[in-house]
Amino acid sequence: MTRLGTAVVTAAAIVAVAAPFFLKSFGIYLISSWAVLTIAAIGLNLTLGYAGQVSLAQGAFVGIGAYTVTLLMQAGVPFVLAFIAAGLLCFVIGWILGYPALRVQHHYLAFVTLAFTTLVFLVLRNEQWLTNGIYGITGIARPVFFGWSTGKAFNFYFFSLGVLVVLALVVWWMLHSPWGRAFVALRENPLRAASLGLDTRRYTLLAFAIGSSLGGLAGALYAPLVQFIEPASFSISMSFNLLLMVIVGGSGYFFGPFVGALIAVLLPEWLRITEGYYLIVYAALVMVMMAACPSGILGLVERLLKAVTSSGKSAPAIGAERTAP
Amino acid sequence: MSGTMNSVLEVSDLRKSFGGIAAVDGVSFEVREGEILGIIGPNGSGKSTLFNCVLGQLTPSSGEVRVDGMRTTGMRPCDLNRLGVSRTFQLLQVFPQLSVRDNLILAGQEHQGSMFSRLFGRADAGLGEAADQMIEFFRLSHLAAAAAGALSYGQQKLLDAAMAFMAGPRLVLLDEPAGGVNLTMLANLRERLQAYHAEYNATFVVIEHQMEFVMALCTRVLVLAEGRIIAEGAPADIRKNPIVIEAYLGH
Question: Which residues in chain A (175-194) have CB-CB distances under 8 A to chain B?
Answer without folding.
Answer: 176-179, 181-182, 184-185, 188-189, 191-194
